[in-house]
Design goal:
Shape: globular
CATH architecture of the largest domain: Orthogonal Bundle
Number of helices: 15
Largest sheet: 3 strands, antiparallel
Strand content: under 5%
CATH superfamily of the largest domain: Cytochrome c-like domain
Helix content: 25-40%
CATH topology of the largest domain: Cytochrome Bc1 Complex, Chain D, domain 2
Radius of gyration: 23 Å
Number of domains: 3
Distance between the termini: 69 Å
CATH class of the largest domain: Mainly Alpha
């Protein structure tokens, strides 16, 4: 009897291994195959002033965070941290107008297919989050902005490393997230823009700004996650803080209208303030990879809020990251402010943007203080939070002098401005 049991167990293990090997082979084939059969969409750039302005809105909020990275605005490619490190090492592409290293030689349709399907000029899949349901008009606007002659897209020869998928990463992209190999044969409309429109808010949250994907558990696309009202927007998507100079994992927060675990107590004005400045009503800092939606207008933010209010609340409490969440607590002690305002999270020795402090070197304390309170007025598109509502001019000046004192030392080895 024991011999039969052992034989049965051995056969089961063999079947599992064969199944796993077959699945990995299929996943590898799907990742590496040529997708030349995916038709190019009939989308061309919108070069109207309105189109370029809309394209900049979407690009700054969605594309720049991956392709430029925190503190930068030129989309030359960047190390990405939107997926758990167990899935591999990810780099975004150079999408400046350089014809060799960037997308200067790509047609509008090839860029559009990359956005929709994640399939590049050479018909190969790239592991980037695709936007299969973004409307034609918004894609045309983004391409219009990219091709508008804006200095951020001036040719750059930088070549980021290739993304490397681990075996689990291949399985996730091939099966869990799926590769969209369906060409867009019909135009996808953008819903009518209105502040009180649940439909427009759902479109923004699920098809443009990726709120649904990042703030819902699992690797399914936003369209699938929206079909699960019990878990959508309840948080729990995992990010790795180590590449950003942090510790451990960060789970995306619950943004349902739960009053105990989500943002149910936030007013519309508080929601808008958090999205634009990066500071919550409770004074907590929204840390990367959460972008600042400085280019979103009041109608868009109101529509997002309307949509969130229409969804089912979820009382699941998402645990804070290791070391807690930085909370803005102004103090007469600038060293304490450097920590409590979250500056240390990015700019302390060994952190991802330590070297950025060197940009303040030689500047007047008053100028640095103005930067601290309103960084976006100096560098539009920056992902640094706005501290104007939390730090008065005197405290900002004290913090500026403290920061300037730190620029006199050397920058830790391995950091880059």
């Amino acid at each position: 009897m024991m011999k039969k049991i052992l034989i049965a167990i051995g056969a089961l293990v063999a079947l599992v291994l064969i199944g796993a090997g077959t699945a990995m082979g299929v996943a590898t084939h799907k990742i590496n195959k040529t997708y030349d059969y995916v038709a190019l969409p009939n989308i061309t750039r919108d070069s109207s002033p309105e189109g370029i302005a809309r394209g900049e809105q979407v690009f700054r909020a969605v594309c720049a965070e991956c392709h430029a990275g925190g503190g930068n605005t030129k989309p030359v490619g960047n190390r990405m941290h939107d997926f758990p490190p167990d899935l591999g090492t990810f780099y975004s592409a150079n999408i400046t107008s350089d014809p060799e290293k960037g997308v200067g030689a790509w047609t509008d349709q090839e860029i559009a297919r990359m956005v929709i399907n994640g399939i590049d000029k050479n018909h190969h899949f790239r592991p980037m989050p695709a936007f299969p349901n973004m409307g034609d008009k918004d894609i045309a606007a983004v391409i219009g902005f990219m091709r508008s002659g804006h200095p951020d897209f001036a040719p750059e020869k930088f070549q980021p490393p290739r993304s490397e998928l681990s075996p689990p990463g291949r399985m996730v992209f091939a099966f869990a997230m799926g590769i969209n190999d369906k060409g867009r044969t019909e135009a996808v409309p953008v819903p009518a823009k209105a502040a009180d429109s649940v439909e427009y808010g759902r479109y923004l949250a699920g098809s443009v700004y990726d709120c649904v994907f990042c703030h819902s558990p699992g690797f399914d696309g936003s369209a699938v996650k929206l079909q699960h009202p019990d878990t959508v927007l309840s948080g729990g998507f995992e990010f790795d803080l180590a590449p950003l100079g942090g510790e451990g994992k960060l789970l995306s927060p619950n943004i349902t209208v739960s009053e105990t675990a989500g943002i149910g107590k936030w007013t519309l004005d508080e929601f808008k303030h958090a999205m634009v400045t990066g500071v919550t009503p409770g004074g907590y800092i929204l840390r990367p990879p959460m972008p600042k939606y400085r280019y979103a207008d009041d109608v868009e933010l109101s529509a997002l809020y309307t949509f969130l209010r229409s969804m089912k609340p979820n009382d699941k409490v998402v645990p804070p990251p290791t070391g807690g969440r930085p909370k803005a607590e102004p103090s007469a002690d600038p060293e304490k402010m450097f920590s409590s305002l979250g500056c240390a999270t990015c700019h302390a020795p060994g952190k991802a943007f330590e070297a950025k402090l060197q940009g303040a070197k030689g500047k007047a304390p008053e100028e640095v203080a103005k930067w601290i309170r309103n960084p976006e007025s100096f560098k539009p598109g920056t992902q640094m939070p706005t501290y104007e509502s939390l730090v008065d001019e005197n405290n900002a000046l004290a913090l500026a002098r403290y920061v300037l004192g730190k620029t006199g030392g050397s920058v830790s080895e391995g950091t880059a401005p």
